[in-house]
Amino acid sequence: MADVREREISVEQEHLDQVYRRLEEKIHEAEFLMNDAAKRSQVGTPGALAERDAQVFRAGVHLNRLNNEFEDFLFGRIDLLLGKDGKKGPDGAYTAVEPAEGAVRADPEGGDGRQFADIAETLHIGRIGVLDADYSPLVIDWRAPAAAPFYRSTPVDPGRVVRRRVIRSKGRKVLGVEDDLMRPELTAFLDGEELPVIGDGALMAALGQARSHSMRDIVASIQAEQDLVIRAPAASVTYVEGGPGTGKTAVALHRAAYLLYQDRRRYAGGILIVSPTPLLVAYTEGVLPSLGEEGQVAIRAVGSLVDGTEATVYDSPAVARVKGSSRMLKVLRRAARGALERDATASAASGGSAASTAGGRSAQGAERAGAADPQAPMANAHQLAFGEEGPEAGGEAKRTTPTRLRVVAFGRRLELDADHLSRIRQTALSGTAPVNLLRPRARKLLLDALWDQSGAAGRHSDPELAAELRSSFDEDITSEDDFLTFLDAWWPELTPRGVLTAMSDERALNRWARRILNPGEVRKVARSLRRAALSVHDVALLDELQSILGTPHRPRKKKELDPLDLLTGLDELMPTREESQWERAERLAAERTEYAHVIVDEAQDLTPMQWRMVGRRGRHATWTVVGDPAQSSWSDPDEAAAARDEALGTRPRRRFTLTVNYRNPAEIADLAAKVLALAMPGSTSPSAVRSTGIEPRFAVVRDRDLGRSVREEAARLLDRVEGTVGVVVAMGRREQAARWLAGHGMGVPPGERSRDWGRVVALGSLEAKGLEYDATLVVSPAEIADESPAGLRVLYVALTRATQQLTVLSGERDEPDGEGVPDLLRE
Ligand SMILES: Nc1ncnc2c1ncn2[C@@H]1O[C@H](COP(=O)(O)OP(=O)(O)OP(=O)(O)O)[C@@H](O)[C@H]1O
């Protein structure tokens, strides 16, 4: 058998060598194109320059792909029977292909009923397609319709596939092959020799591998039910549900690569993948480059969807529940209008007037603080643990709204008092237009009121003269610095951050949240907004505020010219350089706020406000939404579902369910199923595809020393697995757990120094979303479950992270029995 294996490896090696020879030829071609393009740069006509840019762009992309060091560049092969004429299935894949009549023949001797056939075609599958010089395929791109049978064929429905082979290689060397036989009843021949079968199949080989801190692609072992999702047509909404470990994240990533391959032009508009945490972004972001796709896909954590924000702080569950709820929408709308008038009551009460007068005090500086200030205290983000409220944003100079406007025009002193100003503001604010876009309207209303007061309106009966007089009146006033300073203070340009800061004032928030939030909620939300860092839930509020406020139109800055060129007149002679195709692509990617396709991972966790934020990024997009309601950490799934439906609109949905758990061995999946039964009675868990024979371990905190027990149990797991260990604790303990694992304040015994603690990670329960480890230590199930209304579902997530071993550590609160099994996990 070893001989056969070696022989089969050398057969694949020969093929790989041929592929590399061809790739080298293609690299030379691409280099030639680049050089040729460089030469054309000598020719200066605009047409030639544009053509050169386009050519360099294409050749550069090509070279980049070919030079990319693909590990296992070639990974698959299928051996096929002679087929009927191929027909495309509804999704573009050749699934309907069946063997041709007579492709399989019965034993000529009649003997034991065995069947025989000849292999008519062999296809190699890889990360990108490579054609030979005569255009015959040496490697087929895994996303091409012809590659679909590699994934879709099963022994139940084999189609033309007799043998599916996964080829393992590193660089240019083939290391091994694993075969699955799709038609075991058949004796097949290739070039007159019987087709050999090597190994136990690729899936089991892939699943048994140790995990690292980044996810691997599954391109060599995608299963049939997953392939249906990956290749589903992109129209409307593709909706995928499946329990933990069913490959939802993997499928979502492969789908992005598939869509790009299938319609690159359409998806030049960008694909956005929304992920729940920065940890999951970091874990998954290597998958697309390994599939040969980069650039057009943005993977963003839900706390980083607004440019320039990277929120990692979590609000306490009570605060998150309010901030995530769609009740906030009305509060924000009121706040965005109310923030214009910050501290009006306070300043009126103290008799203060920040009015701008023609020769009197000016409101200078009034606009610098508070709502209009982009540098308001929240900009100063730093990491805080869940539940901590952090330092108060004190010491900020409060912006006060001027309560009087005095100007001198046409030799008369004119004045608008607080009541008048307030009426003008109300008139300007009527309607739903974005607040920042209403400033010109407010300015116009002020001028109208001053004009009325001036009495100049009746001076001329001739309409032309009257209009002239009015426009010189307006000019007179608006050219005064004091009027402009007043306007800036009275109707400042608001920023989302500024309004959020204004909402940290409990009295103000109370006004804006009247009959929407109760006083306790107002207090908590205002307090949470006074901390220095943005929370993950604040980001959706910022985004909502941005759309409520609007961005005032600013004339585009004129290109700056070199003063010397201006002096010498050279600027007239120098043609302005056209933006190159490359620069344009980069600029568009940087400016992109809407996408052609949006993929939402862990969709069950999006709050209503987050759905609104994500929805704004895909107003004209097609969608792939993957999630598992049983893992939802949001307390009110019905409210979130309504917001989701609003974001997705009336687009039709195509639903898929994934049913097999590839991550957890049966021993761990069975334990997790007990919590699922409590968290969502009646729902079924996915079936685990393998078992290890290793039961979960139940440990109990020793000597009431939680920290030391955590470290001991983590060390024990480190010794038992080759890859990573995740220690999952309640959110309130995440920083404490990191200190325990670092050994702070504990004497570290000599034996421990040799352990590789870099393989261990401490995680708050909400951060464990989507991640996986070789081994997991779940600390105090009761603590995790009690932390929020969705606590049992969060615990279910924590228990389903391990690919090999699981330890559950219980404290007193878990009420462990004699075996250490906590109350929540008993029968
Ligand atoms: N066809 C496959 N071949 C090999 N490995 C697979 C396959 N499908 C899934 N896996 C592996 O199973 C694990 C779980 O996959 P993934 O994280 O995508 O699941 P999930 O459904 O998103 O889980 P969760 O809901 O818990 O976040 C990953 O390690 C993934 O690589």
From TrEMBL:
Q: Where do Low complexity bias regions lie?
A: 345-366
Q: Which residues take part in binding ATP?
A: G242, G243, P244, G245, T246, G247, K248, T249
Task: Report the Gene3D superfamilies cross-referenced here.
Answer: P-loop containing nucleotide triphosphate hydrolases
Query: Which top-rank group of organisms is this from?
Result: Bacteria
Keyword tags: ATP-binding, Helicase, Hydrolase, Nucleotide-binding
Locate the UvrD-like helicase ATP-binding domain: which residues? 221-665
Pfam families this protein is in? UvrD-helicase
Task: Tell me the segments the record calls region Disordered.
Answer: 342-377
The protein, known as: AAA family ATPase
* The species this protein was found in: Streptomyces flavofungini
Could you read off the lineage of the organism from its UniProt record? Bacteria, Bacillati, Actinomycetota, Actinomycetes, Kitasatosporales
